[in-house]
Amino acid sequence: MRSKSLSRRELLVGGGLAVASVATPALGWTQSAAPEDVPDEAILIAALAMEESTIGTYEGICDLQVLGNSNQALAEQISKNHEAHAESLRKWLREFGPLPDSTRSEGRGQIPTANNALQLLVDAENTAINTYLTHAASLHYRGVLADAVRILVDEVKHHTILSAQLAQRIA
Fold first, then answer.
1. pLDDT digits (tens, 9 = 90+) for 137-146
2. ∠ CA 50-136-152 to the nearest 5 degrees?
3. Over the stretch 109-158, which tens digit does the pLDDT of each residue have?
4. What contacts 52, CB < 8 A, 6 or more positions away?
């Protein structure tokens, strides 16, 4: 039997479907959440809103100074990665026209422990992973798709590192 090599789009669709089949019921999403022919601009706007929300989460947690020195530095570095992701998305959105208004919110409040803060960051990374897995396969332009895949890899790295830090603290 001859093996078929998969295109990036097929690989993303397959991987996205595998993860989405687990994540979708848990998050309450329906199949209508990822229509097949969504304009790239709409996907980019949604991804930018998610990145800006994630940046706000990181900034809010960093401002509270509950993580300790090493985790604080890690969170600040990951926040900078999210800033780079947002700028990459803005670059593509400029190709479609004017940028949408920023959706960044400032998350201030009480987070009692470093474990709570790390869990919140792990959850934010999980949302980012699900966003890119759900929508990347619907992108039409190769350059936009390539950036989405690169960002998805970063999100998985962030999630893995933060999950390991949380697991160490709990153990």
1. 899 889 999 9
2. 65
3. 567 788 888 999 999 999 999 999 988 889 988 999 999 999 999 999 99
4. 86, 102, 103, 104
* CA distances to 39, 54, 87, 88 from 93, in Å: 12, 19, 10, 9
pTM of the model: 0.72
Please count the other Cβ atoms lying within 10 Å of the Cβ belonging to residue 39: 12
Contact between 116 and 61 under an 8 Å Cβ cutoff? The reply is no
Counts of helices then strands in the chain (DSSP H, E): 5, 0
Match 């949380």 to its residue by tokens: 166
DSSP single-letter state for residue 113: S
> Assign residue 35 a region: left if phi > 0, alpha if psi is -120 to 50, beta otherwise?
beta
Q: What does the alpha-carbon distance between residue 112 and residue 110 come to, in Å, rounded to a whole number?
A: 6
Amino acid at 29: W
